[in-house]
Amino acid sequence: MSDISSHGGSGGGPSGRIGIGLDLDATHLKILEVLRDNGRISVSSLAERVGISRANAYTRFEALRADGVIKRFTAEIDHVRTGLGITALIFVTVRQQMWRQFRAELARMPEVEYCAITTGQHDAMIQVRMADVAEVHAMVTDRLANIPAVKATETVFILDEVLKRPYVLPSDRDKTRPARRPVQEEQRGDVPLGKMRFVGAAEGRAALRKDD
Amino acid sequence: MSDISSHGGSGGGPSGRIGIGLDLDATHLKILEVLRDNGRISVSSLAERVGISRANAYTRFEALRADGVIKRFTAEIDHVRTGLGITALIFVTVRQQMWRQFRAELARMPEVEYCAITTGQHDAMIQVRMADVAEVHAMVTDRLANIPAVKATETVFILDEVLKRPYVLPSDRDKTRPARRPVQEEQRGDVPLGKMRFVGAAEGRAALRKDD
DNA sequence: GTTGAAATTAGTACGAA
DNA sequence: TTCGTACTAATTTCAAC
């Protein structure tokens, strides 16, 4: 059960994989679209829905799997039903040169569902699922605070998860947006830029993306 | 393709579902554990791995599905391979009384993978997948800024996704932690509490969790 | 890249423990 | 409830086109 992503970052940094084994065409994307909503569909039904032959579907399906485009299949579950109804985001400031230790400690925390290294005020964001707020508090004060690599934390609770897509595909963008495009074009320029803010990375963090 | 979660929040608020249709035993959790890593496993193999009969596995599997504990099955994909290698978090401050509009606009944005309402300095956090940073910038300035409900935004880029579990289960906690428990007990009290911070919700936001 | 037919496997229904 | 078995339907594999 190795949970640490073996792949490179999603930020276009030092990734690792250079040669692309497979370039995805519209059919590949269609397959991924179907698989997003029904990961247990049979390859036969998949072929039908996508509009290709079974053999072709099998070939493409296997290629997507073998090439790592599809990392794995999983079930989406209702956390409330399993008793982990509290979700929190913990923003962590990591002490320089201690990323390796931070990562190692993360691997020991099964209640962490997601951890990303970010630009901005903090260095990392972790998402945890707990039974109650007391457990979140205990996790932050007892476990995180005891990691020397952790300089500071900031915790925020999730009140509601409004939207959660399994994943986004490039083909998604051509669906809802065209209707709004003209509006965008017209309003371009009138945008009150002052109300938004981009937060860059702290000193030297980008260089520390991989372990230390 | 309705992406907005029909379920209640994950924060224990006004959920909707009251009567629990199914209380999960250790076997149920074991099933979910297997399904987390292999959502396409056959029910026969599942039965084998969990150590129950095939018939029983079918019954429990169906019960978990019908009861909504398993929301759906999906494929996990590599965003870099699909050309959406840039991930950003956008923290949004929403104008009071305009949550309904904000939610409606969100539904029109297919590149948004996740949106949660949070406590703390901001009101919501959305995660987007884009082809490049320019697209993120365009999304924030052209699309988000044009929503009257959006008072302000703060954008942060994800440099690396260190850990991404499909989901956390209550049974996970009894795996890695026991080894560290004694350490926790010893260090309890020596925790430098000053280095962490809990951020509460802004005025009246909890009451506005559902639309408006 | 497609179709069709054999082999295998999945899903269902039943009685017994 | 759970298990084991037998039955039916579907899927996967492999062949030739």
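Residues 52-56, 59 of chain B lie near DNA strand D (CB under 10 Å from a C1').
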